[in-house]
Amino acid sequence: MGEGAKRRVRFGALMRSLVCGAGLALLLTSIQVPAQGLAWEQGLRKDAPDRYTVVRGDTLWDISGRFLRHPWQWPAVWQVNPQIRNPHLIYPGDVIYLYDCGGRACLGLERGQGVVRLSPEVRRIPVREAIEPIPLETVRHFLRDHRVADDPESLGELAYVVAGNDRRIISGAGDRLYARGGLERGPRYGIYRVGDSYTDAASGETLGLELFSIGQARVERSEGDIAVLGVLSASQEVRNDDIVLPLEERELADEFVPRAPDSEIDGSIMAVPGGVRFIGRLQVVALDRGRRDGLEPGHVLQVEQQGERVIDPRTGETLRLPGTDAGLILVFRPYEKMSYGLVMRATRTLEVGDRVGNPRRGVGVAQR
């Protein structure tokens, strides 16, 4: 009996024992690829475990990577029974197990029961926090400090700091400052400083202007177009001419459903915020493609590094060798002309200028 057949028998027996024994197994739908199920040999890791117990700190991407060769396909896995309100709610202590359903790979979910110890004291039950799809805290931290102005020419129309209190040139938390630009009372405003200009290397088109956060403030009162703001927080000193903008919407939890883009993407890594050139896993990168190119939050892009240039030994021609797949990037904040993405996998050190595009169909592209 071949190895694939042995695994099918073993996981089939495991499935039956779990379902018949306790009735706790919640079967997830089979992994999907276009037009057919994923065969055992196509998408499973050779060292995939029979069972895996979820621990604190795991992400859905991490767990899927223990079973699947291409972990970004987890949305096709976490489609559980209708009685579970949110299919993304997987908790520490839950058990994920692998089984065979009609020759296709399927995953099952067994809810962790935990142990309650009795004592004369009031019983305290800790709140269970569902694991995240990806390391969202990394993304949230970045978005607290960075945003992009789609049209740099519009900066002249944005509100800006004109002076600090008592003629100060710089201000900090607890200080008051003056800004011009028709600000309203009520909402919090972000204070930003102009950073790098993002430019398309091929066309020279300006794709956006980086703004990095200095702090937050709230309007206390205004006279004409000049507002008095109280500085609520500041990571560094606020200076004259810093930009004042309404805070961006930063809700992320429901946006990250990894999937291939619907349109053809051909772009590149344009920059790394902070000036780093060499890039590894869980670093944020700026891409030269955005919403106008069809990118949305959750789109997964494959990174390809250009092959070396060599000289043909017979003709003397300069040839470019085929490129090498080097990693995966998940888009988390697309703007009109560019995007920010998180490196989810890097099989080699990535660099500014590496190409990004649609995941190859040869590696299992999941469609919506």
UniProtKB/TrEMBL annotation:
One Pfam family, please name it.
LysM
Q: Which residues form a coiled coil?
A: none
* InterPro entries according to UniProt: Bact_Kbp (IPR052196), LysM (IPR018392), LysM_dom_sf (IPR036779)
Query: What range(s) does the LysM domain occupy?
Result: 50-98
- Can you tell which superkingdom this protein's organism belongs to? Bacteria
- Quote the PANTHER family the UniProt record gives: PHAGE-LIKE ELEMENT PBSX PROTEIN XKDP (PTHR34700:SF4), POTASSIUM BINDING PROTEIN KBP (PTHR34700)
In Swiss-Prot or TrEMBL terms, this protein is called LysM peptidoglycan-binding domain-containing protein
